[in-house]
Design goal:
Belongs to the glycosyl hydrolase 9 (cellulase E) family. InterPro entries: 6-hairpin_glycosidase_sf, 6hp_glycosidase-like_sf, Glyco_hydro_9, Glyco_hydro_9_Asp/Glu_AS, Glyco_hydro_9_His_AS. The protein has helices spanning 2-15, 17-21, 27-40, 84-101, 109-126, 141-144, 170-186, 192-211, 221-224, 235-249, 252-260, 276-283, 293-309, 334-354, 367-382, 406-409, 426-430, 460-463, 467-484; strands at residues 82-83, 134-138, 160-163, 319-320, 326-327, 358-360, 363-365. It is mainly alpha-helical. The radius of gyration is 21 Å and the shape is globular. The relative contact order is 0.15.
C-alpha cells in the first residue's frame, strides 16, 4: 500500500509541469482575459462599453421570421449560429463560477455579471412563449458552415428552431432552467427584481422540461446534429435543472425530485452534453437541508467522479498526456479540461468546508490534492507544457495565431466596411498569415493525446475556441488569482 501511495505522489510531481517551469502564472490577467472573450462572441446590439472594438452589431433581426425578438445572446464558437443548449450551459457555468468564487474576482466581478446577463437576457426571450414553445436555436447551421463570413455580414438563413409539447426537448429546457435559476442566485442581491424574473422563467422552463419529456435532437436532428446532439439523453439535464431549482428556491421538493429521478449512471465526464457529475457535485454540499442523509448519495457519486479523473487513482478512467493534460478526446479536448478543473476546485472548497477527505483505493484525497491537480491543469493551459505554449489567445508570449474563428480571421468591419460574401471569406480561411483580429482570452480546443498541436485554421478540432471551454475556467482562475497574485 505504501508503494502505491508513493507512486501516486511521484506521478503527481512528474505531471505538475507548473512546479518545474514556474511557481504560478499571472492568474489575475488570465481571469480578465477569459471574461473579455465573451464580448467577442456577442450577438445583437453591442453596448457602448464594448471593449472588443473589431466587432459591431449583428443578428438584429433574429426571430423576426416568427415575430419574436431573439436578438442578443452568444455565438457558440467560430461560427455565426446561436445554439441554445451550449449557450445555456455557458451561462450556468459563468453563474456557478460567480457563486463559488465571485468574492475572489475583485474588479472582474462586474464584468462577470455582464457576461452572465448577456446570456440570461437572451434566454428570457427564448422562454417568452412557454409553455407553448421554447426557442432553442437561431441560424441554419448547415448553410452557415458552408460560408466563411463575419457575423456582421451573415446572410445565410436565420431559421428559428423550437421545442414544444408535441416535439419536446427536456435536455435543452432543463439546461435553460438551470441557467436561469443559477443566475437568479447571482443577481438576488445585485438586482432583486431581475432575479425574480429569472427565477419565474426558470420554473416555467423546468416544468416544461419535466412535463413534456424527450430529447430535442430526436426531432431537430437536421438542425442540431452533429453539432450539439443530445448524446447523453435528457435525464442528466432534469437532474441538473432540479439541482439548481433547489439551490435557488430552497424548496425541498426539488431535492426529492432529484433523488427519485434515478439518474444514477456512472460518469467520468462533465460537459455541455452530460451534466451528471456537475449536478452531483452541486448537490453534495449541505445547504438548507435539515439533515445530511439526503446528500450522502450525491456526495458518494461526486467522489466516484473524482476518483475516475485523478492521476494515481486506481479507479482512473481517463487518460493524461505525457505533459500532464487531462485527455478525453482529440476534438476540442480543452472543454473537458476546464469543466473537470472547475469541479475539482469546487469540490475541494466543499471538502474544506465539511473538513472531509475520502479515498480512491489507497490514495487519500484531500482538498489540497484536488486543488493541486486543478492548478496543474490551469498551468498547462497557460503555458507550462512541453510546447511552452499558452492555449489562451493573448496570454503570454506564445499562443495560437491562426484560430478557427470567422470574425478573428477576417478583416474587421470597422476597417473593411464592404460586405464579405459567403465564398469570398474562404480566402482568409486559407491565408497563412496570423489572424488580423485578436480574440483576446479565447481558449482553443488544444493539443492531442501526445501534446501535439498544429496552429492551423483548418484544424478546427484544435484551434477553434468555444464559450463552454472558457466559462468553466473562470472560477478556478479567480481562486488562483486570489491565492497567488
Amino acid at each position: 500500500m505504501r508503494r502505491r501511495i508513493v507512486l501516486s505522489l511521484a506521478i503527481m510531481l512528474i505531471w505538475d509541469w507548473g512546479s518545474l517551469v514556474s511557481s504560478h502564472h499571472d492568474y489575475k490577467d488570465a481571469l480578465a482575459k477569459a471574461i473579455v472573450f465573451f464580448e467577442a462572441q456577442r450577438s445583437g446590439r453591442l453596448p457602448s462599453d464594448q471593449s472588443i472594438k473589431w466587432r459591431l452589431d449583428s443578428g438584429l433581426s433574429d426571430g423576426s421570421t416568427v415575430n419574436v425578438d431573439l436578438s442578443g445572446g452568444y455565438y457558440d464558437a467560430g461560427d455565426n449560429v446561436k445554439f441554445g443548449l451550449p449557450m445555456a450551459f455557458t451561462t450556468t457555468m459563468l453563474s456557478w463560477s460567480v457563486l463559488e468564487f465571485g468574492r475572489r474576482m475583485g474588479n472582474e466581478l462586474d464584468q462577470a455579471h455582464k457576461a452572465i446577463r448577456w446570456g440570461t437576457d437572451y434566454l428570457l426571450k427564448a422562454t417568452s412563449a412557454l409553455p407553448n414553445a421554447l426557442y432553442v436555436q437561431v441560424g441554419d447551421p448547415v448553410a452557415d458552415h458552408q460560408c466563411w463570413q463575419r457575423a456582421e455580414d451573415t446572410d445565410t438563413p436565420r431559421t428559428v428552431y423550437n421545442v414544444s409539447p408535441a416535439n419536446p426537448g427536456s435536455d435543452v429546457a432543463g439546461e435553460t432552467a438551470a441557467a436561469l435559476a443559477a443566475a437568479s442566485k447571482v443577481f438576488k442581491k445585485v438586482d432583486p427584481d431581475y432575479s425574480k424574473t429569472l427565477l419565474d422563467a426558470a420554473g416555467k422552463a423546468f416544468d416544461f422540461a419535466d412535463r413534456y419529456r424527450g430529447a430535442y435532437s430526436d426531432h431537430l436532428s437536421e438542425a442540431v446534429c452533429p453539432f450539439y446532439c443530445s448524446y447523453s439523453g435528457y435525464l442528466d439535464e432534469l437532474l441538473w435543472g432540479a439541482a439548481w431549482m433547489f439551490k435557488a428556491t430552497h424548496n425541498s421538493s426539488y431535492l426529492d425530485y432529484a433523488q427519485a429521478l434515478g439518474a444514477n449512471a456512472p460518469c467520468d465526464t462533465f460537459s455541455w452534453d452530460n451534466k451528471l457529475a456537475g449536478a452531483r457535485v452541486l448537490l453534495s454540499k449541505g445547504s438548507h437541508v435539515k439533515n445530511d442523509e439526503p446528500l450522502a448519495e450525491f456526495r458518494s457519486q461526486a467522489e466516484n467522479f473524482m476518483c475516475s479523473v485523478l492521476p494515481g487513482s486506481p479507479m482512473l478512467k481517463i487518460e493524461y498526456t505525457p505533459g500532464g493534460l487531462l485527455h478525453k478526446m482529440n476534438a476540442s479536448n480543452m472543454q473537458y479540461v476546464t469543466s473537470t478543473t472547475f469541479l475539482l476546485s469546487t469540490y475541494a472548497k466543499y471538502m474544506k468546508h465539511l473538513d472531509r477527505t475520502f479515498t480512491c483505493g489507497s490514495l487519500v484525497v484531500t482538498p489540497a490534492l484536488l486543488r493541486e491537480v486543478a492548478k496543474s491543469q490551469v498551468d498547462y493551459v497557460l503555458g507550462d507544457n512541453p510546447r511552452g505554449m499558452s492555449y489562451m489567445v493573448g496570454y503570454g508570449d506564445k499562443f495560437p495565431q491562426h484560430i478557427h474563428h470567422r470574425g478573428s480571421s477576417l478583416p474587421s468591419i470597422t476597417i473593411n466596411t464592404q460586405r464579405i460574401g459567403c465564398d469570398a471569406g474562404f480566402q482568409s480561411l486559407k491565408d497563412s498569415n496570423p489572424n488580423p483580429n485578436l480574440l483576446l482570452g479565447a481558449i482553443v480546443g488544444g493539443p492531442d493525446k501526445f501534446d501535439s498541436f498544429t496552429d492551423d485554421r483548418n484544424n478546427y478540432a484544435q484551434t477553434e475556441p468555444t464559450t463552454y471551454i472558457n466559462a468553466p475556467l473562470v472560477g478556478p482562475l479567480a481562486y488562483l488569482a486570489s491565492s497567488f497574485n
